[in-house]
Structures
1.
Amino acid sequence: MINIDAIDFSQSGKSNHLATCDTCHWVNPYKQAQENVCQRCNAALQQRKPFAFQKTLALTLCSIIAFFPANLYPIMTILQFGKGQGDTILSGTLYMFQNGMIPIAAIVFIASFIFPLAKIIGLVYLLYSVKFRSGTSRKHRTHMYRYIEMFGPWSMLDVFVVAVLVSLVEIGNVLEVVAGPGATAFGIMVILSIFAAASFDSKMLWDGQGTDER
């Protein structure tokens, strides 16, 4: 059992020799140099995810690389009588805005451009704050990570739209929707960023020096 009176709440769980079970989220005492299991579900305990920083950094860099072709190449092409012009995410959003589809344009722009970009920037900042001192409190950075995890999958909206249109819109040689290379790059970027967020260990934000007052 955990002695509450012996816990220094100004320090991290690692400093207090505690570990949270990744399976049932039960807080357990943790002893170094021996095998530790959860007192409730008997799952193996570890205070930090192994190589979490390195994995998140690698996946984030790969998602940054995929971000450029995802936004520079056409995500889909609408062919009418065999002719058509490919649209990127931004050009498609602009087309919908100019044709009065402002709410849809806003949803696509936010979910397919703002969310992925904000997620990548947020992950880069969190990785930076783990290695270097940050002026933002650890509590606020933890909330930032939770938002990144929550809203990240919504970026798949464009991929779902393209998949539905490609499978449903085909009227002989009159009208056809063809997925572009940007859709593949976009899907890769979103999946990599989701894996990057999942591999990040938010408990690393509470290691070392920091402030919780701001």
2.
Amino acid sequence: MLTPPRTVVRRDAGLYALERALQRRGFAHVAGADEAGRGACAGPLVAAAVVLAPGRRGEIAGLADSKLLTAAARERVYAAVVAQAVAYQVVVIGADEIDGRGLHVCNLAAMRRALAGLSVAPEYVLTDGFGVDGLGVPGLAVWKGDRVSACVAAASVLAKVTRDRLMVQLDAEFPGYGFAEHKGYATADHQAALDRHGPCAEHRFSYVNVAAASGRSGRPPRARRPVPDIGIREPMGRMDPARGTVGVALDEQLRQPALLGEDVVMEGGWR
């Protein structure tokens, strides 16, 4: 049997080119996965997975990498993705999980749980930056995937908006840190608040700057408040159980990130 030729998709071919190339090769349901909060030193890690409809039905007005959108634009795109996606899933992991299991392990766990929880089983998976093993379907890790793939960009918006809403609620619970403004990232203002007040229960004590401010050498406080139940139902809006839900990821094994180069060659191995 002859091996079919490789499909090469240029990065300047547009946000939907990668999914459409995969769909032409017979993969009807292409899922994208991304996370928000990986670089923060406080608050949860949030991962999302999205399957968009094929063809023009899957186009989302204003869709782009969540980091390139204003807060108002992200909210509009978030609503459109929730309304139009074939399936979506959002998973939240709290700071205590990150401290106990490690950031990268939790990141893989959250993305795997989000993908596994989709109500429509994906036939091909695109992930942002690094691969995720154990999915049972072909997959591809795409460098800066949220700027190349529509379904990854949609996942980045769901993850970012969900996490931002959670951080606003944490700001009300733990005033004085500015969570609503910097969303838990290590800005100068956040570090000044850390030095002034010390960490709260939602800081990540495994991070060097938090551990230094705590004087605990990385040991978390005795009691933490669980993050996954904070504001999920209200900030997320009504979740359609047929297409999208929220869950909490479990432990997974560490895997080193795998990056791709400038153009994407779609041969996807089994993951």
